[in-house]
Specification:
Layout: E1 2-4, E2 11-13, E3 18-23, H1 27-30, H2 35-38, H3 44-47, H4 50-63, E4 67-72, H5 83-86, E5 98-99, E6 102-103, E7 126-129, H6 140-146, E8 151-157, H7 159-172, E9 176-185, H8 189-204, E10 208-210, H9 212-220
Parallel strand pairs: 3-4, 3-8, 4-7, 8-9, 9-10
Antiparallel strand pairs: 1-2, 5-6
Bound molecules: dicarbonimidic diamide.
Dicarbonimidic diamide (C5J) binds near residues 72, 132, 157 and 162.
Length: about 220
Amino acid sequence: MIEIPADPFVFRCAPATLGLVVIDMQRDFIEPGGFGESLGNDVARLGAIVPTVARLLAGFRAAGLPVIHTRECHKPDLSDLPSSKRDRGAPSLRIGDPGPMGRILVAGEPGAEIIPELAPIAGEPVLDKPGKGAFCNTGFEDLLTARGLRHLILAGVTTEVCVQTTMREANDRGFDCLLATDATESYFPAFKAATIQMITAQGGIVGWAAPTQAILGALDA
Ligand code: C5J
């Protein structure tokens, strides 16, 4: 049994049901010139968590536990991009527009790739998702179920958008989820803090939260 000291209480599971989900650690969110910066954000905040996410990944790989990566991106013909998503806000570059790293958030373009430091290795699924949550119009639930996964550690960006949405979707489907607090980040520090408070409040209404060291310590034990 794996036991992770967590907020609001210990997160327990059998190793065979535990997997790591790394959300959207893509060049478009983390590197200058991508979607994140086009929205006016300081992408350096997100880059700062890369070594911690790498440690978490290494811990799961060393323990022989499954890792799944997601990428927020759209088909080149944008047929999976609703106008409600494309036209929201006033970014300098919209999804599908050409930018310094190719077309913004389009599958196959350099910007949509996972950053090289966290590149998936052979056997690790990479799930392309058109929504903020990983369950929207994807086969994510089947992918998890086929692997016998019921307990998920979540990491990645951004905390209050794709990570939180995925965690809420997973929780509603009966998965127990723990957010790795120092392996996730937001462009807005207050939104990250509020997300952690929201998910763990009321007895863990959406799930658990714990730092990477606590997760790795439990895997080692
Ligand atoms: C956003 C994401 N923030 N991966 N995407 O648009 O959180």
